[in-house]
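Task 17 of the worksheet. Students: predict the tertiary structure of the chain below and write it out as structure tokens. Keep your answer in the requested format; marks are given for formatting as well as content.
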Amino acid sequence: MGNSIEVKSILDERFGLNLTLIAGRKGIINLINAPKIQKKGLAFAGLTEILRDGRILIIGNSEIEFLKRFSESELNSLVETIFERKIPAIIFTNNNKIPKAFKIHANRYNVPLFKTDLSTSEFIPKITRVLEDFLTPTIPYHGVLLDIHGIGILIEGEAGIGKSELALDMILKGHRFVADDIINIKFIPPNTIVGRSPEALKSHLEIRGLGIINVEELFGVVSLREEKRIDMIIELTKSMHEIKRIIIQNETKEILGVKLPFIKLPISHGRNVSTLVEMAARIYMLKKHNNFDYDPTKKFLERIYKNPESIKL
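Model answer:
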């Protein structure tokens, strides 16, 4: 993808990685270019070719126990072959004691060596999340993102059409709010996109006539999602004539290479938009349950075509 970050970027205390630098300080400018870490026990059996360049190496309890089998000279030779790979950093979890050979070669090869008091099972999800935020492609997108019945729905439409008011209505109905106005959307291989609010706008919603409200303060933390996978897009539109009355062909819209179900929802006086959006979420759930081989409109028309007499008075 071409993205990379320096090792020192992961040292921010906000990430809660609890990292302590032990050796190899000059290497904190080394580049990490992949969000996936590596925990390759086979590398310690001499198969260092399985290590991937640009990825952090994690060493936990099982690797430490395995390393105890080697003599000092054998361990020194093995560790050197590991450091000869282009590994940006090595991290020992569980506050494990770091063998001397690692410290020596960390300084020699300028590979930063860290330890953390977090367990491996705690640490890997945390650092993976941090690296994904840094390294996965992200674009700003205008709209509102909501979690409705567990379905991530991106609401878009022209300014002033009522996207934020719809979000407020959904929150009042017990659904969860993710972002308003600007959504940072990132791609997660192979075919998922996730949206979240920029930190400065997090939990805030602008309602014309009321100003900016803090959703967490008014409705509690249960009304929020920090981020949500985007499952479908609904565009609010004031134009009724461009919407077909009977829709069979499912439309899609592409964001960051991912095609998502797309609905144009006309709004007008008397239409309960929040209820219609809830219904769209329920239809999506039903379609997903049927492996997307379900269309109630098509099913109805097929039944009528087979038995036209059934609709005669």
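Marker's comment: The longest strand covers residues 176-188. The two ends are 63 Å apart (CA to CA).
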